Amino acid sequence: MADGELPDGELTDGQLPVLRVRWLGRVPYTEAHAIQRALFGSALGEGHLLALEHPHVFTLGLHGDPSHVLVDPASVGAELVRTDRGGDVTYHGPGQLVVYPILSVPMGPGAVPAHVRAIEQVVIDALGDLGLQGAGRLAGYPGVWVDPDGDAPRKVCAVGTRVSRGRSMHGLALNVDPDLAWFGRIVPCGIADKAVTSLAAEGIHASMREVLDAVVARAASQWGPCRVERQDIAWDRRAADPGMSLPVSSKKPPWLRAPARMGAPFLTTSHTIRDLGLVTVCEEAGCPNIFECWGEGTATFMVNGDRCTRACGFCKVDTRRPLALDPSEPERVAEAAARMGLDHVVVTAVARDDLPDGGAVAIGATIEALRRRLPAAAVEVLVPDCKGVPDALASIFDASPDVLGHNVETVPRLQRAVRPSAGYARSLAVLARAKKAGLVAKSGIMLGLGESAEEVLGVLADLRGVGVDIVTIGQYLRPSASHLPVERWWTPEEMEEVGRAARGMGFAHVEASPLTRSSYHARSALESASGGSHPRAAAGAAG
């Protein structure tokens, strides 16, 4: 497939069902669960297969016995999480391949046991492909066992699932090469008299990627016929390199040249921002739309200072050691918005990994200050991931912004190169949690870093699958020679084609053009997402 070419029939009737396989790397259990839950409840979530590792965690099923956890989890550096699947206690950790299929399950008598057996068969067949012969089922015990008919059966894979309304979540945990001592800290699956093993312990020395490949091949056969659409977080940093690039001296095409207009509205906006000592992402990130937006009397405020604790490969924002938060900043942002007469206020924030809450409380305080000063204005925030800490994110969600934005920025394969301190799974989890909190969710992706058209469509399907309402798609522009290179320029026609595909997936609003940025046409996006019925959006439109 040529770069920029959309796969034929991507959204046509009669196409084979798509199995969207995602290798997400190492993901905390609660974040993976948030993604699962969102996909589980979404029409576009069906047909996802999430593959990952977890940091050390013990999980208790709905009827799990807490006494089967034999140590204080915190004392060994693990979490204890109650979850909504069957079964007892299970360990997950590094060296274990965890696979969560979100699939349709034909309902009827025996549907759930049949689904469990199908998962078991995928593993049994995959293990055979990897050279482990004789794996199978042990009567009366779920999962996959080595030497199940012998004197010493050993469990190599746990299976636990939940099926509701014809949709499945949870799945399998296959021991590739974990530290088996961890299983001695629990009663695995509530079974005290049987051993746990791994592929490595059985003499099968396969990499995690080889094991995943075998499982995916068998899953596609078991749940086929289907078309596998797979995207992986880069397995190593070399695989994350964007690859070929345009020379630094390469001229921008004409469609990327924004005219500079510095009339009275632009100067008034600039004066207000300077007078109140504020920072805008328009300036800090070198946005090409600054003349258009400031000329219309709008700006995107950047809070929590002007220094970011992350050094993303695409971003121009200062990365020196950040200063202490200024408690007066929320009120100054509200004052600026009032002076500018804004009816839709956009606020973004630098990442503040130096703070326990990632700067979340200050973002919430800014929303509240805007509500007090401009009760009729819509408030949109574009937030960092706050390390995925639920309480930190809740302090933003509880302030009830009208739009909660968080960008995935690029496709899974390029995440490590583009945003090395963030993660694709964490970003999906942030968006899923925002949607669960009842907010309008928004995300954005840049093109031109080396991604393929099919990868872009896969990301859009993931975003829609976790409930994102608004998506922005724009061309990456290199801020300096020290930033990631531009691989190619996407044409306006190609951007529009991607936009049409996104609209076909059911997004309420899509902005797709070379100069599109996260807050571009933000007010009209909210009006589209709310169907014109959002009280503040409606009030702004009327004004």
Protein topology:
Layout: E1 18-26, H1 29-40, E2 48-53, E3 57-60, E4 79-82, E5 89-92, E6 96-102, H2 111-130, E7 135-138, E8 141-146, E9 154-164, E10 167-175, E11 195-196, H3 208-222, E12 227-232, H4 237-240, H5 264-275, E13 279-280, H6 281-284, H7 290-295, E14 300-303, H8 329-339, E15 344-349, H9 360-373, E16 378-382, H10 390-397, E17 403-405, H11 415-418, H12 424-436, E18 440-447, H13 453-465, E19 470-475, H14 492-504, E20 509-512, H15 522-529, H16 535-542
Parallel strand pairs: 1-2, 1-12, 3-4, 9-11, 14-15, 15-16, 16-17, 17-18, 18-19, 19-20
Antiparallel strand pairs: 2-6, 3-5, 6-10, 7-8, 8-9, 9-10, 13-14
Helix pairs in contact: 1-12, 2-3, 8-9, 9-10
Largest sheet: 9 strands, mixed
Shape call = elongated
Strand-residue proportion:
15-25%
Structural class: alpha/beta
> Could you tell me the mean pLDDT?
88
| Name of the CATH superfamily of the largest domain | Aldolase class I
Rg calc: 25 Å
CATH arch. level architecture of the largest domain: Alpha-Beta Barrel
The count of DSSP E runs of length 2 or more, i.e. the number of strands, is: 20
What would the keywords be for this entry?
BirA Bifunctional Protein, domain 2, TIM Barrel, 2 domains, eight-stranded mixed sheet, 16 helices, elongated, disordered N terminus
Descriptive account of the structure:
- The structure is a single chain.
- Helix 1 (29-40) packs across helix 12.
- The strands form 3 sheets. Strands 1, 2, 6, 7, 8, 9, 10, 11 and 12 form a 9-stranded mixed sheet that branches. Strands 13-14-15-16-17-18-19-20 form an 8-stranded mixed sheet, with helices on both faces.
- It folds into 2 domains: 18-225, BirA Bifunctional Protein, domain 2, CATH 3.30.930.10; 303-542, TIM Barrel.
- It starts with 17 loop residues before the first strand and ends with a helix.
- It has helices at residues 29-40, 111-130, 208-222, 237-240, 264-275, 281-284, 290-295, 329-339, 360-373, 390-397, 415-418, 424-436, 453-465, 492-504, 522-529, 535-542; strands at residues 18-26, 48-53, 57-60, 79-82, 89-92, 96-102, 135-138, 141-146, 154-164, 167-175, 195-196, 227-232, 279-280, 300-303, 344-349, 378-382, 403-405, 440-447, 470-475, 509-512.
- It is of the alpha/beta class and 543 residues long.
- The chain is 30% helix and 20% strand.
- It has 16 helices and 20 strands.
